[in-house]
Amino acid sequence: MPVLINLLLIRLHETLALLTSQLRPDANHKEDMVFLKDVFSEKSLGYLMKIHERLRLYECQCPAPVLHSASSLVEDVAEELQGKSMSSNEKELLRLLMSPHFKAVLFAHDTVAQKNFDPVLPPLPDDLEDELEEATVKIVRLVKNKEPLGATIRRDETTGAVVVARIMRGGAADRSGLVHVGDELREVNGICIAHKRPDEISHLLSQSQGSITLKIIPAVKEEDRLKESKVYMKALFDYNPSEDKATPCQEAGLPFKRGDILQVVSHDDPTWWQAKRVGDSNLRAGLIPSKKDSDCEGYVNGHYIAGLRRSFRLSRKGRQDTPEETPPESEFLTYEEVTRYQQRPGERPRLVVMIGSLGARINELKQRVIAENPHRYGVAVPHTTRPKKTHEKDGVEYHFVSKQAFDADAQNNKFIEYGEYKENLYGTSLEAIRSVQAKNKLCIADVQPEALKTLRTAEFKPYVIFVKPRIPESQPRHTSGTSPAGDLEEMRQSGAQMDQQYGHWVDRVLVKEDMASACAELRGILERLEREPSWVPVSWLRT
């Protein structure tokens, strides 16, 4: 609807011109017709419509100011011109630059460019209570413009006073610099809150629109505004603050999904951190459960448990886990500290690991991409105990070894994974990966997801791609036998189970439509991996 309205408005002056030409005097409404014709024919109205059209077109181009202080530049130019003898053209330029209308346009430009158009606050009320000495009371008026205040409160257990518990980075309170942790809150918009519950006060704060006036007693020692930390965490679970009764303020909570990168801007509170989602345009921080879940408590199903563990239970709600498949609370994953990593010249390429659910056919996908560019990509040659065929070469199709040698390597943990097929042993060794990387090739390995526990090391820095076929939603989900619909349901369950158990290690999900498009997407992923930085665990880069 907004797009349609914009299109109509853009051509409004043309519509008015057409309407004017269609107006004809009518015996019964002659005066009205003449009036409308005069209005629609007014040049000023036509100019306004044209200005509106130009502004709409300009807005669609997402303009950005070249300068934030054009007025200062014009003053410098004028000063430079006045300091010497001027030609007629220079005098004309100076006259234009110094004209009041041109200065007004530049002032308007700078105001918009600097976004310096907050409303002017009205004067403070004169009828302030004299219950406290003037030196101990601070009146703060903030502009919050349909956004949260950016502060949480608590009641002091000793004094019963309502105090500021935390200031959210980037919020209205933080931007003002006038409210600090520990400040005692006495009034909100002239309403005494001494005998109100914290939830009633929070509701009062959230309902206030535009400006909000606070009467506070500053903390004995105001804390300096802390610098934002540069700690980044990869979320390993889903979190929705609206479903978490343990959070001190649901409005201030930050929802996130597993795999999101979070910048933790404050971890002063051991229970609730302040964080932002990387790539989010919202500059305000939100509350997330800290990693120290033992301090974060709340009620679930009548039991008093850790709030973060409760969040994990919520994130798993609806999953078809059996009691045996559900890990104990202590094994729930929280966050993994990460940092940006870019391969440096001369450094060994990262290992690319592909895992796939049932029906993904990742070996064929891998082989096709490698065959297209064998000088750039390579595959680890596996070991086997089966006899070599006449057309095969040792070290090309397989490394052919004896069973004794294979068993010895397995005992020494030299294999990523290995198994038996038709009474022959097969396995992929760590050394086979290193030999591909030594040739400065990107090694692509497809393994069972259990092997990720071995491969996720600083040496290999694996980039994990999860490949799964696209399953049509229109197919019935519950069928039996070996029908196509039954196969699709089995593939769907395979993908869901793999995502649940190993999804926190995945860097990229590739949904396979067909082999050609999957190859094209995989090539794009590999190319971006080599030229663009990506997030890796901090532990991989520590010496």
TrEMBL record:
Residues 228-298 form the SH3 domain. The keyword Signal applies. Keywords: SH3 domain, Signal. Residues 139-220 form the PDZ domain. Gene3D superfamilies: 2.30.42.10, L27 domain (1.10.287.650), P-loop containing nucleotide triphosphate hydrolases (3.40.50.300), SH3 Domains (2.30.30.40). Residues 349-527 form the Guanylate kinase-like domain. SUPFAM superfamilies: L27 domain, P-loop containing nucleoside triphosphate hydrolases, PDZ domain-like, SH3-domain. Residues 63-120 form the L27 domain. It holds the Pfam family L27. Residues 1-17 form the signal peptide. Residues 473-494 are annotated as: Disordered. Belongs to the MAGUK family. This is MAGUK p55 scaffold protein 3.
